[in-house]
Recover the amino acids of this structure.
């Protein structure tokens, strides 16, 4: 019992130290998920219902929900069609005296566009919060994702397999966020962890197992917990252990994922990513929704993306896997081109 809690404690500390050393940041606070970290961060900022947080439209629903539940207003803004990250012009036209923070998502691990957003935040005195759920290990011109802004939030279930877990990362004083988190100590049931584990398989080489279950057992939203804000706030020891073991080796994983992306680039329409992205997903941009839908319904591997953005109808994605062979990647290229072309001829 005592040994068990010692192990748990030490991996929580180990993962905090690992992230803090890698990003050269003072504070890493663990949570039950990324959305949970984001929720407590917004809550700690004491924003009122007129205070606005800009978030990209191409996003997991749980993040605008977190803002709302924390008592503020999220303003959903379009992304750039090439980078899938916030469109700077659209951001500018949505800024007003109520804008208190901009939430920059490094979509699929891509950091392009953050410097422009950072400059704007500095000029206007607005907080910059980064979402590096897909982007641990990504950098742009030598600056690491998670170190551009005032705060960053991270998920332990997107670049790895895990039961849950997330982190808030910052050089600022975060003691009030910790206090808030600890004031609400609610545990989660075993089922929540199992669901999260299945959902996180979705992000890895075993995503087909998760996909099977998502298709078979329940609606994808339910299994992926897209709309749900956690009722428990703490990262548990085993989540920290899994995160530590996988983050330790992430550079090698990213290098292989980069090779996969480079194999596709130029052969299919895909996201424009920086050379040092983390390449967490491979995306395929179809000419229109019918072609995309046709492709998805004829492939087990191509998946639909988040709804509600200008790119949503054209896109399908595949979680990028270190196990993809050249043959497999060529199959993706052929499949994409076949479906895109087939429809164009209609
Ligand atoms: C970019 C991004 N940020 C945050 C989240 C939420 O992460 P978590 O499940 O750890 O709350 C997701 C989930 O899909 C995501 O894709």
């Amino acid at each position: 019992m005592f040994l068990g809690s010692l192990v748990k404690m030490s991996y929580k500390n180990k993962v905090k130290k690992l992230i803090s050393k890698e990003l050269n940041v003072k504070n890493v606070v663990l949570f039950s998920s990324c959305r949970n970290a984001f929720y407590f961060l917004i809550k700690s900022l004491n924003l009122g219902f007129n205070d606005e947080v800009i978030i990209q439209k191409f996003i997991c629903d749980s993040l605008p929900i977190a803002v709302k539940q924390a008592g503020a207003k999220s303003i959903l803004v379009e992304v750039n069609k090439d980078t899938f990250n916030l469109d700077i012009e659209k951001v500018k036209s949505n800024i007003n005296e109520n804008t208190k923070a901009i939430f920059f998502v490094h979509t699929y691990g891509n950091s392009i566009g953050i410097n422009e957003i950072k400059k704007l935040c500095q000029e206007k005195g607005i907080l910059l919060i980064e979402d590096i759920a897909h982007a641990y290990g990504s950098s742009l011109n030598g600056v690491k994702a998670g170190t551009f802004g005032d705060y960053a939030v991270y998920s332990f279930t997107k670049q790895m397999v895990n039961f849950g877990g997330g982190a808030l990362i910052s050089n600022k004083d975060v003691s009030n966020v910790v206090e808030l988190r600890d004031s609400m100590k609610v545990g989660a049931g075993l089922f929540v962890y199992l669901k999260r584990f299945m959902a996180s398989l979705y992000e890895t080489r075993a995503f087909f197992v998760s996909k099977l279950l998502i298709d078979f057992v329940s609606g994808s939203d339910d299994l992926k917990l897209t709309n749900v804000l956690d009722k428990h706030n703490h990262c548990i020891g085993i989540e920290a252990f899994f995160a530590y073991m996988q983050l330790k080796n992430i550079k090698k994983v990213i290098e292989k994922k980069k090779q996969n992306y480079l194999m596709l680039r130029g052969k299919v329409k895909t996201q424009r990513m920086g050379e040092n992205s983390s390449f967490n997903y491979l995306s395929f941009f179809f000419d229109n929704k019918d072609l995309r839908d046709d492709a998805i319904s004829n492939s087990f591997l191509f998946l639909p993306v988040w709804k509600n953005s200008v790119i949503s109808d054209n896109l399908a994605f595949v979680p990028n896997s270190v196990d993809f062979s050249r043959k497999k990647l060529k199959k993706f290229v052929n499949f994409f081109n076949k479906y895109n072309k087939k429809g164009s001829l209609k």
